[in-house]
Design goal:
CATH superfamily of the largest domain: Winged helix-like DNA-binding domain superfamily/Winged helix DNA-binding domain
Largest sheet: 2 strands, antiparallel
Strand content: 5-15%
Oligomer: single chain
Radius of gyration: 16 Å
CATH architecture of the largest domain: Orthogonal Bundle
Distance between the termini: 41 Å
Structural class: mainly alpha
Number of domains: 2
CATH topology of the largest domain: Arc Repressor Mutant, subunit A
């Protein structure tokens, strides 16, 4: 990975740090910022950059590997797995529009995500 997309951890969030890392990597893959074969930082380097324990990053990477988003190889490290779906541009455009509306309404990330979760729950009941 030549220029790594930003990953941040909010230690004050109700979302555990490992899950924040996992979600952000998935989001970067979905958005096309990370593509098949792109290398993620080492566990040790990412943990140091984020100010979290190596076990926290290791758990995120383990869960990413279990879900098929990344693979870990001895010589190449952790890379985005082949076969990860290409980003759906219509969905990405809709997400960008939603973020713009949420920001204009003054919502923070947690409030915007709560709105999305609510909408997703509403579609399950329909």
């Amino acid at each position: 990975m030549t220029s790594a997309p930003a990953i941040e951890v909010d230690l004050g969030s109700s979302i555990p740090p490992y899950e924040q890392i996992r979600l952000q990597v998935v989001a970067h893959v979905s958005a096309g910022h990370l593509r098949a074969g792109d290398r993620l930082p080492t566990i040790r380097a990412l943990a140091a950059d984020l100010g979290v324990a190596t076990g926290t990053v290791a758990r995120a990477f383990r869960e990413l590997e279990q879900s098929g988003v990344v693979v870990t190889r001895r010589r190449t490290g952790t890379v985005v797995a082949d076969g990860t779906p290409a980003p759906d541009t219509a969905v990405q455009d809709a997400a960008a529009r939603f973020v713009a509306v949420a920001r204009a309404a003054g919502l923070d990330d947690d409030e915007a995500l709560a709105a999305v979760r609510g909408a997703l729950l509403g579609t399950r009941e329909a």
